[in-house]
Write a structure and sequence with these properties.
Length: 212
């Protein structure tokens, strides 16, 4: 794995040829993963009493705001919990409180880490800005990830097991079925897969509803 902290470096140094192919085990794992997850992806907001999380007998069910009412006004997503959270925050649709204690120091960082992957997948762009709008440095450093580009051994296999990026993605952040949201940087000289006209490359659906 090679790691870059600027897009220009990545484009400069990449040769454009794929080094190696993903292992057959990983390919099978990914195929099964996508098959089991796609059915559960899209949908509508379930009322709290049917969501399998809240106790339907609890009195709170009548007091709590329903997800449908709270979320329908925010920038929509076609997957996960159907809100494009990064855009909702950027557009000022939500203004979460940054801290509870006045003394807490809020730290933000605008630094992209580009993780070049083995095999034919586009490289991964990890954006610090979007993450530190929501999270504190200690949520990731130095337990999940080292504070040095290239030091953590990140792999798709571990991510799919719910480690590394998979601790949040697929749980509280957009799901792992959205490959292209992470694998967003095509290698120089890489050919885009050719799909028949009218097929959305991200969802592989006819007239797919995927938006950039
Ligand atoms: C959501 C997880 C996450 C959060 C939150 C996060 N980082 Fe990182 N950070 C990463 C990852 C992933 C890497 C790359 C690690 C690797 O390649 O081994 C990284 C790398 C770094 C690096 C190394 C850059 C380099 O050039 O080598 C620094 C410095 C850093 N982070 C600082 C911060 C600071 C400061 C904050 C808080 C303002 C922060 N990070 C918040 C995930 C995170
Ligand atoms: C500690 C939790 C956490 C970890 C670990 C984490 N993320 Fe995220 N990530 C988030 C949250 C929260 C958001 C914003 C909500 C969303 O987009 O669903 C986000 C957003 C993103 C976005 C921006 C999406 C957009 O719409 O612009 C990308 C890209 C991303 N993550 C990639 C990664 C990658 C790659 C890793 C691993 C190297 C990673 N994340 C690890 C929590 C995390
Ligand atoms: C949350 C971000 C994220 C999502 C979503 C994601 N990946 Fe990855 N993927 C990564 C990271 C990070 C790596 C490790 C990069 C590296 O080698 O440093 C990786 C690596 C890979 C690799 C290289 C082999 C390996 O074991 O590391 C393949 C192949 C891959 N991903 C395929 C996929 C496919 C297919 C999907 C969609 C089903 C997907 N990824 C979704 C972040 C993501």
């Amino acid at each position: 794995m090679r790691v870059y902290t600027s897009l220009a470096d990545f484009l400069d140094r990449r040769t454009g040829t794929a080094r190696g192919v993903p292992s057959p085990g990983l390919v099978l794992f990914l195929a099964l993963f996508i098959l089991t997850k796609t059915s559960a992806m899209a949908g509508e907001w379930l009322p709290l009493k049917n969501d399998g999380i809240h106790d339907p007998r609890s009195r709170a069910i009548k007091i709590l705001q329903q997800p449908q009412e709270a979320l329908q006004r925010l920038t929509p997503d076609y997957t996960g919990n159907q809100v494009r959270w990064v855009q909702a925050l950027d557009k000022g649709e939500i203004k979460p409180r940054e801290k509870i204690f006045p003394t807490t120091k809020v730290e933000k960082l605008d630094l992209d880490i580009i993780l070049d992957v083995k095999g034919g997948m586009p490289a991964v762009r990890f954006p610090h800005r979007q993450h530190t709008e929501w999270l504190d440095c200690v949520n990731c450093h130095d337990t999940i990830f080292a504070r040095a580009a290239g030091a953590s051994k990140i792999s798709m296999y571990k991510i799919l097991q719910g480690e590394q990026c998979g601790i949040c993605h697929g749980a509280v952040a957009f799901p792992l079925t959205e490959c292209a949201r992470c694998h967003s940087i095509p290698r120089p000289g890489m050919k885009q897969p050719e799909l028949p006209a009218g097929i959305d490359p991200r969802t592989h659906q006819i007239g797919g509803q995927g938006k950039p």
